[in-house]
Design goal:
About 40% of the residues lie in helices and about 20% in strands. The protein contains nine helices and ten strands. The strands form two sheets. Strands 3-2-1-5-4 form a five-stranded antiparallel sheet. It is elongated. The chain starts with 6 loop residues before the first helix and ends in a 10-residue tail after the last helix.
């Protein structure tokens, strides 16, 4: 299954499917009780954690689909006997897909998509493109922002929205709480303008700017001169991706920064909206 496939596409192609839900977890397990997947005779959508547990679930679901009979629930110990060493136990339930259930799944998927943290990547250059691509694989809403139409047209990729604007700082002001802002435009003056606007957002999950020690010092002086709010500077991550790895290739910077941004975004979301057990679908 492509990582960014929409559930509607899967349901159109595979209307004869079985919903597999994790209904109970005791001890250590690959996923929690919010995990589910769809299984058809030839494809799957999403995952309940992989490994032998998932293979067993797929086999059970496909046997039920072929027979037309209901699939019995499973309670699976995750021990050596199935080739997994998690040590816990997982309960699974199986439900044949019907129109109402399909609508429930679409609604749930839409809710989960809408709740994804926003990440705004300012600058559709080499690093910006690589970073947007890396982030697009994660459960985030990624928006690539630039003032140059030709760069955005060349940067079209699945799972990434684009925003052409002459005033990127306005995008910062309009972003929802918990957003992350990553600044790597073609113009240092524009970088500074966007970073200053983002640092005013006390509800930002992450504010990062590509750069060096010199650029960081220059921005601090600029911020002091323009706003006098040097205390905001302490919230800026610059350079993005840390300093432990000295490799400056765009894909390396993007990979390191993506992990940093993902951690910040999900940490902010967890703190703002404590996780609660999700009800079963259907």
């Amino acid at each position: 299954m492509p990582a960014r496939e929409d559930i509607r596409d899967f349901l159109r192609r595979e209307p004869m499917s079985m919903l597999v839900e994790v209904t109970g977890v005791a001890g250590s397990a690959p996923r929690d009780t919010d995990a589910w997947m769809l299984v058809s005779e030839r494809a799957i959508f999403a995952t309940i954690g992989g490994g032998q547990l998932e293979y067993m679930a797929i086999d059970q679901a496909r046997r039920a689909l072929r027979s037309g009979l209901a699939a019995e629930p499973m309670s699976v110990p995750l021990g050596p006997e199935i080739g997994q060493c998690c040590g816990g136990r997982v309960g699974l339930a199986f439900t044949a897909l019907n129109p109402d259930l399909a609508n429930d799944l679409i609604a749930r998927s839409d809710r989960e998509m809408a709740a994804r943290p926003h990440v705004y990547v300012f600058g559709a250059g080499h690093v910006g493109d690589a970073l947007a691509l890396a982030l697009s694989l994660a459960p985030l809403r990624v928006v690539l922002v630039d003032t140059r139409e030709e760069e955005l047209v060349a940067s079209t990729m699945p799972g990434v929205e684009t925003c052409l604007t002459a005033m990127p700082e306005a995008v910062v002001r309009d972003a929802p709480a918990g957003s992350s802002f990553v600044i790597l435009t073609h113009d240092h003056a524009l970088d500074f303008l966007i970073a200053a606007e983002a640092l005013k957002r006390s509800d930002a999950a992450y504010v990062g700017m590509i750069g060096s020690k010199t650029k960081r010092a220059t921005f601090r002086n600029w911020l002091s001169r323009e706003s006098g709010q040097t205390e905001l500077f302490d919230r800026l991550i610059c350079p993005i991706g840390g300093t432990a790895v000295k490799d400056k290739r765009p894909t390396v910077i993007a990979t390191l920064a993506a992990a940093e941004i993902m951690t910040a975004a999900l940490t902010w979301t967890a703190a703002a909206q404590p996780a609660t057990a999700k009800p079963a679908i259907g």
